[in-house]
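#structure-requests
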Amino acid sequence: MISRRIIRIKVLQVLYAFYSSPDKSINNTERELFFSIQKTYDLYHYLLDLVIEISKHAESVVELRKKKHFPTEEDLNPNIRFIRNQLIAQLSSNESLNKYLGQSKLSWVNEPELIKKLYLTLIDSDFFKSYMASEDNSYQADKKFIEQVLTDVILQSEDLTQLLEEQSIYWNDDLDFVVSMIIKTFKKFKEYTGEDQALLPMFKDEEDRQFSKDLYRKAVLNHDELKEVVTKYTVNWDVERIAFIDELILEMAIAEFLFFPSIPTKVTLNEYIELSKYYSTKKSRNFINGILDKALKALKAEDKILKAGRGLIGEDSNLPS
């Protein structure tokens, strides 16, 4: 589930914390890195449960209306399509989700006001009204609707964003990514999917888990060498005035150039330029782009870029023009 881009972001964050803290324990910060990744995986399950909780709230509203002193015909015979949504039913019985929520103690039980606000926003939306009135009762229609709940209600909720930021500093930049991973998960669900349907694993494979550890350690243990490279290719810049986050982005990218033979330099270049869009100013982004381009050309000319694997040796076609 955790993409390499998210891994790079997490490593950047813990590197910043490492160099900003008096505690210079590599092991402690590495544990912080994996804890941060685990928290993203927590959020994945937490938001899956949020969809279920909104549906439960809808059901409680229906039941309360039936018990009114003078219920209307609509109160007594409500449209229950949402609370009978087939995808929500699958999520509610999913063994992996329920087991994880139980072990991690994640729950929305203390957030009834948020659940109510999300529900009210949902029922006021045009797509909710269209869904409830539609004659298409297919599984695919149910799935498409829940995806819209995620993108148009949950992802847009400022109240939810604020709550998540208050609950965990590790969730500040994760919401968009986690929602995209949930939608990716739903693509694996089928109409006949049972309670044993697998959710996404925390890491795609062991290689990605190792990449997390290696990128962090290579960046820390080779900090002096990497900073020297940055200094060398910023000769016309006052290195002391370069933003620290920009320096870390440059060092991480150069670490990938030098120490990760299976990652194409073009991929590294694109990933760190993309990273700079979120963590640097527009002026800094152009600076990082230019420095990495210059450094990569020079390091290749010095035969310091050694890539191994199919289509990677030499990488002549990837050399920036």
